[in-house]
Design a protein that fits this description.
alpha/beta, Rossmann fold, UDP-galactose 4-epimerase, domain 1, 7-stranded parallel β-sheet, 3-stranded mixed β-sheet, 41% helix, binds nicotinamide-adenine-dinucleotide, binds uridine-5'-diphosphate-4-deoxy-4-fluoro-alpha-D-galactose
Amino acid sequence: MSVLVTGGAGFIGSHTVVQLFEHGEEIVILDNFSNSSPDVLDKIRQISGRDFRFYEGDMRDRELLERIFTENEIEAVIHFAGLKAVGESVEKPLEYYDNNINGTLCVLEAMKAHGCKRMIFSSSATVYGNDNKVPFTEDMKTSATNPYGWTKVFIEHILEGVCTSDREFSAVLLRYFNPIGAHKSGLIGEKPNGIPNNLMPYIVKVANGEYDHLNVFGDDYDTVDGTGVRDYIHVVDLADGHTAALEYARKNKGVQTVNLGTGRGTSVLELVKAFEKASGKKVPYVIAPRRPGDIAECYADVSKAKEVLGWQAKYDIDDMCADNARWALKL
Ligand code: NAD
Ligand code: UFG
């Protein structure tokens, strides 16, 4: 029996595969490399000392899915594959809805045809929208402000519907907060294409001299130092959350929604300072206007993760910065 990991060559997927191997799981990966590269697969083999079947292709390719489910006994799917750039989703909504929603439907249909009834889904804190108060709890109303966010809201509803129609189905909706950091080996980590939208990859490019400064988007929020506060979580902690969710899905049926965060908020300037300390590099910054659509604070209530999955984050912001710097700056 194997676990199918869609998007397993990506940032969170690759770290999760490594952690799944530590738990003795058998893995099959599907990825079309639209936002990753084949060398990651060798790095996963190098770190884990384990091999796996890999299928290169698109999750919307029904024939390919049929082949994967016929050639392997898939017991559960951990579903990372998806497009994730908020700004791009505003420019290309149809591409996002097709890839993320239609792609998920294709995976669910193949699962149905082969009697596979467990899915762990990569949702996002973005589903808390703009109107809820921190810390975010799983029972809050969901919404979105852009097509990317809506794909997460809709897929959550699709999985609820699947579980209502099939009482044997188990879906764990994991709402990730802000994953950063990298594997301790320095062999895998985040590699964004083009100009990074997210804070940590941007900090890295300032630290290595590619850009001369960071734009800090607003210093007049009602936060500890006026800059935006987020719940950064080490990607290896996040990966471990998936092994816990898989165990849970094997023992329980129905939908379960769980936040994966640390429960602690860190401001932009606090992250900059922590990265400078961990890397020994300067990160010059200038205060810029607020970024449209940003909220002041976003952090999780993590009590349900502990209670339901028996999981909690182990690494702090200094660990995240040290591992991120080792990977990205090859320190
Ligand atoms: P990533 O882009 O590094 O990984 C996604 C992988 O899926 C890539 O390897 C890409 O090539 C693959 N992929 C995309 N569309 C595909 C398709 N149609 N068929 C096959 N493969 C396809 O992203 P990540 O940061 O590892 O995120 C993984 C998941 O977690 C995504 O669904 C993302 O929306 C979600 N998520 C990410 C964050 C974050 O900040 N990184 C936060 C919340 C949720
Ligand atoms: N920021 C800057 N300068 C930058 C980039 C970011 O000051 O160059 C600030 C932002 O204003 C924000 C904080 O750094 O206060 C974090 O920004 P990110 O873009 O790294 O992360 P977000 O929380 O805004 O967004 C992330 C994902 C989204 C997801 C959202 C909620 O990118 O996909 O978390 O989970 F929807």
